[in-house]
Amino acid sequence: MSESPLIIALDYPSLDAALCMADQLDPARCRLKVGKELYTRSGPAVLEALHGRGFEVFLDLKFHDIPNTVAGAVQAAAEQGVWMVNVHASGGRKMMEAAAERLEKNGLATHLIAVTVLTSLQDSDLQEVGLSDNLAGQVERLARLTQQSGLQGVVCSAQEAAHLKTVCGDRFLKVTPGIRPSFAAVNDQQRIMTPNEAMQAGSTHLVIGRPVTQAVDPMEALAAIEAELA
Ligand SMILES: O=c1ccn([C@@H]2O[C@H](COP(=O)(O)O)[C@@H](O)[C@H]2O)c(=O)[nH]1
């Protein structure tokens, strides 16, 4: 079990490639995130392999469907022993309540959180899909709904973490992708912060993928991030 806020995103197209990276990492220094590409290719085998190596895993499949379907998917994830799983908050209160109730009814301790607004989006993207509120307002609205629905936290950008800390409190998890150390490329992220800025802003967990996994020396990149946080 790790006390570190770092969650390394294993966005790889094969189980072998993901395990090659995992084998260089230490479960005492980080948790790992399995997302849509890797899970679609490898299925539950990747979870078994990472759990077998001692890692806690965030299964980032961002479920979004009718309440009964999402509750079943969240239960299935939790029964595979993942540390954290998520849904899209825009699936609504009934969907989130059904998922949270399913975990509670079955005594499953997996953390359940909800995505507010993807870190790859900015204000103009929300307008294009017909949302009239600005981005900060939409993140706050969905974070409040997530908390009212009984979930433990949200995925948001670190740029919203400080405000959500005042709105939802310290203990409400703020899991923030879009983390970019000064040495890393921005890629397709829009709302970014450095690791240190993100922690200062109130992030509880930092999701970092390409700045580590695509680095020429991933372990050196990870060590530089840890040094920045220290
Ligand atoms: O709003 C979100 C939600 C999830 N993600 C995921 O986090 C990682 C970020 O990877 P980087 O390589 O550090 O950009 C990736 O797996 C996304 O699917 C996100 O970026 N934003």
From TrEMBL:
It comes from Vreelandella populi. Catalyzes the decarboxylation of orotidine 5'-monophosphate (OMP) to uridine 5'-monophosphate (UMP). Keywords: Decarboxylase, Lyase, Pyrimidine biosynthesis. The keyword Kinase does not apply. It catalyses: orotidine 5'-phosphate + H(+) = UMP + CO2. Its EC number is 4.1.1.23. It comes from the Bacteria. Substrate binds at residues 11, 33, 60-69, 119, 180, 189, 209-210. This is Orotidine 5'-phosphate decarboxylase.
